[in-house]
Amino acid sequence: MIRSLQNLILRPLLAGLIALRALRRNKLRSTLTALGIIIGVASVVAMVAIGNGAQARIEGQVAALGQNILTVFAGSRRSGGANTGLGSAGTLTLADAFAIGREIPGVVATSPEVSATGQVIANGRNWSTSIMGQSAAYLTIRDWKLARGSMFTERDVLAATKVAVIGSKTSNQLFGPFDPIGETVRVKNIPFVIIGVLSSKGTGFGGQDQDDRLIIPYSSAMKRLTGDRHLRSINIQVSDANVMSKIQDQIRNLLRQRHRLPSSREDDFSIMNQKEIADTVGNISVIITLFLGAIASMSLVVGGIGIMNIMLVSVTERTREIGIRIAVGAEGSDILLQFLFEAITISLLGGLIGVGVGIGASRLVGALAGFNAIVSPGSIILAFGVSFLIGVFFGFYPARQAADLNPIDALRYE
After folding, report:
1. Taking the complete model, does pTM exceed 0.85, yes or no?
2. Radius of gyration over alpha carbons of the chain, in Å?
3. Rounded mean pLDDT of 302-308?
4. Domain edge (last residue) among 239, 265, 291
């Protein structure tokens, strides 16, 4: 019993020590053999981290639009054979926005939107920015905080007050480091008093700079700036993400009824469902991440083939050594374990170095691309697991070849 236990513990330990000594004796060859695994593991870790980081960035941009948001856009119109795009046709009115908020259960808030691009003048400077007419509920719908000051109220909207909330980039362009609260900006020679500064949100979904804008009451925009009687869009916040599709259908039916559209005619508006966009973007991001990881994992297979090739060469070079070990009492299982340990050791060391290289590479690429690469513990564990399996799989055949050598033929080998 004791002898069996000793054999069970000591023989693998001895085989492992002999394997490590053999690797130290051929340091350069062992390093070059591990290089394939290093590159493979680094590629997998880096690709998955970059994919996760890109996914998180896109999801963050979608989330920056607000929570549980539906956006109704006016239809497009054709001018001289060219389609002017969504929001260009006058098919949405304030009455439509009020009807949605009043008649559709589950709608928390609405914000009619009028938008334009114009030159803003203040403090001896001028800047071309996006001018948006919104309701007092707009920041709540968009889940957007103020860095300073306050949002205009419904009373300001009803009175078409000349007040504005300014984006952080627009504020910096016009006022530099100074506080713009209480200052006056002129839009089409009409003065607006700044009462609030938006917190920074950066680039939004679609590449638009969300910090470069001036928000005023939609009534002020329609009466004092654009003269529009129609809306570009209506922002709608829904109480529960699970009922967004249902409410979307109710809004469509309501607007078709209000616009007196026959069943044979298409909608003269379109509805964007933020949840559907987020789900679609998330699914695409996951597929891209898996695709990148799968491509990178091919280099692991190449690294494994390199291990098998070197181990077969090593068996041939050490045939006489194997014969001597068998002659002095080593069993075939000892030889098998020795060469298997060599392959696994090379693979695991390569995996360890590869994880470090992959993390460093992903951080570098993320910094250059402007987002944070996310290294998940799962990808590291998977990389080590795959490294171990590659060492076992590609090392077993050479190890078996060594264990099956005839000791007499091995001793005669030159």
Report:
1. no
2. 34
3. 78
4. 239
